[in-house]
Amino acid sequence: MNIDGHIVLPDRVMPGRVVFDTSITDVRPLLHNVPDRYILPGFIDAHVHGGGGADTMDGPLAIRDMAMFHMAQGTTTLLPTTMTAQWSDITETLYAVAEIMRSGIPGGPGIPGAHLEGPFISPHRRGAQPAHTLPPAPARVSAVIRTGAVRLVTLAPEVEHADTAIQQFVQAGIRVSIGHTQADHEQAERAICRICGAGGVAGGTHLFNAMPPVMARAPGPATALMCSDDAYAEMIFDTHHVHPALFRLAHRVMGRRLVFVTDAMRATGMGDGPSSLGGQDVMVRDGVARLHDGTLAGSVLTLDQALRNAIQAGASLPQAAALVSTHAAGWLGLHDRGAIMPGRRADMVVLGPDLMVREVWVAGRRSA
Ligand SMILES: [Zn+2]
């Protein structure tokens, strides 16, 4: 099979043809009759709770529904993300994700694991996470590792048992992301060193959100993440969670280490109105989801919108495509995808000249 269009490569946009079966077999330039559309690597979302009315915590059917919703917006790989909740609800959800990893979602996106966001976070920086935080005691960490589902964990490095938890997660090949944290700059730096020193991959969960701010004499975890040579960091770039100027700053400093995520909740794609997150009432107004006290409650972002926001903020199309795909593939160790390149999985998104999603291909199969 093949698709012609303007192919978004890591460093440029090339008019050409992508030839593929389940993987991409050839990428070649075309001089004439190139359709007015863009071909991008399929989007990868490392942090997504829900969408289309469904939430990861509702069980296997809801995980399928929310995955199919996001696939229609160009996401070809995602990590269903848990909320801080009753311990049994969290482990049950992880087993549900493990089951889906085994069976796959027919005609759906790739699910290479779950993102465990809470309960191992700071009770003082919960954001919209319910008040069921727990310290990462070794037995609890072993229990979530045993589910086989966790690919990425968000952890506050200052909480009790965090150091041993980091060792356990890294030994299990799980990426450790610093987030929902009160850590100061030094604590965050030490945690990054500890993760990388143990042979792991370090990151930060939604940079600038649910962590102390950057101040002149207290640079905080955001600065530790940005200035690290190794750490990745997520960003929710719906332009409400992070100001465009801070996106530009982080992008300039971090390059391929900055990863766009949605942190999308159930209400995504459902328009304005009441919804819920982790059993709490949420109101969505003008595309912003808030708890009753005004706390931002996840987002209603999709990655195709994040891509358009990045371009609006000054990024080039290859840069924006990398932010929603290539960088996440690097962060998650998914080296078989995240670029339009021979040998990679044929995960592709076709955008019209208006940058709206027209077609989605997963492993060479037209899926939306
Ligand atoms: Zn989240």
From TrEMBL:
Binding positions for substrate per the UniProt entry: A128, N209, A210, R217, H241, L296, A297, G298
Cofactor comment: Binds 1 divalent metal cation per subunit.
Annotated catalytic residues: D263
Segments forming domain Amidohydrolase-related: 38-365
Cofactor entry: a divalent metal cation
Pfam families: Amidohydro_1 (PF01979)
An example molecular function term from Gene Ontology annotations: N-acetylglucosamine-6-phosphate deacetylase activity
Binding positions (Zn(2+)): E117, H180, H206
Protein keywords: Carbohydrate metabolism, Hydrolase, Metal-binding
InterPro entries (alphabetical): Amidohydro-rel, GlcNAc_6-P_deAcase, Metal-dep_hydrolase_composite, Metal_Hydrolase
Coiled-coil segments: none
Entry's Gene Ontology BP terms: N-acetylglucosamine catabolic process
Protein name: N-acetylglucosamine-6-phosphate deacetylase
Organism in which the protein naturally occurs: Komagataeibacter swingsii
Higher taxonomy: Bacteria, Pseudomonadati, Pseudomonadota, Alphaproteobacteria, Acetobacterales
